[in-house]
Amino acid sequence: MPNTHGGAEKGPESSKDRHRLILETAARLICEKGYDGASIQDIADACGLTKAGLYHHIRSKEHLLLEIQNYGMDVFEEQVLSQVIAIADPIERLKTCMHRNVMLVTKGWSKEVTIILHEHATLTGEARSQINARKKRYVRFLESSFAEAIRSGRMREVNPTVAAFSFLGMVLWIYKWFRDGGKISAEQLADEMKKVLFGGLEIAPAKAPAAPTVRRKR
Amino acid sequence: MPNTHGGAEKGPESSKDRHRLILETAARLICEKGYDGASIQDIADACGLTKAGLYHHIRSKEHLLLEIQNYGMDVFEEQVLSQVIAIADPIERLKTCMHRNVMLVTKGWSKEVTIILHEHATLTGEARSQINARKKRYVRFLESSFAEAIRSGRMREVNPTVAAFSFLGMVLWIYKWFRDGGKISAEQLADEMKKVLFGGLEIAPAKAPAAPTVRRKR
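Output (structure tokens, whole complex):
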């Protein structure tokens, strides 16, 4: 699990946990001070390591930024994409995907990882293409799932690209406003978002003509 | 109109246009080089002004950042909020609002203004509170419009806060992926987004039982 801060000195998980802790800590510092403002010394201090100790774990500051982004995409693929890709029904696949993505964004990793994944354009060249390709894979997955659902006749005919980016915008905007422990729980958020997005997309099964609209008292 | 680059030497509009051009240019430089990286000299050069000439228009670099954000909110309120706030029907109000907000994000101002409004946390104290209050006003407007539509019985019962931030996420994520002149036009994007969001939210008028689902040939 991502947010495993501390207690990383035992068992075979410890080195992986330590590495994750470094990446999460570096992400936090880069968000606070900016990429240029956060020095390797700052990051080492925040991790409770010497500079030499930190270099045991990382190659360079630029490579660290790539590693944070790859770490973000790894956790995303492990907890979201790979868990839903085999679901045969496209609407069920998309709903489960939204649920898992909302849970990841609200609980799975730190807000700073999201910020570095989606706001930081500091990567260049090969590193940048690598991350963009991983992001694009998710967009294509969503687009083709929406297209499949539309072809099946159970989803309204909308542009699958607009549907895919609407899905992404809803889910990825969450870190801007949502606070865990606030009025709305993460589970409730996931359920409500599915209602908002799919309530309209999914064609309701034919129903008996309704009685003249019943209005609730208020 | 915001993107009025150049030709600002005639008529009563010229000083306002010149000011807008400075703000848009500064926004672009701050996005390229970061707030710390973009010097007042860089901004003056890009505007074709001397440093003294630039200081004729701006108070300080920090104040410039506030001005860019206030400019973004001014244009937003002028072209979106004030144009829809008086629409009596809440669903019509929200749809028109989405349409206008999509057009603003795709055509009305530069991508850099959006980035500075939504990604830059460099403002502090009073300036920050001022911008946050303006943003919050929009969130409250959306929430209360969704709540009103739900009370009227014509919108599914969803959490109005989640609906408001879903709306915002869809619309504000656009600058991350949309390119004017690409496969999807701005108008088409606005129409499709309304279909995606409201198709589900709006309770369809009672219809005659449909014939067994007609599937399109493909």
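Confidence is low (pLDDT under 50) at residues 1-10, 201-206, 208-218 of chain A.
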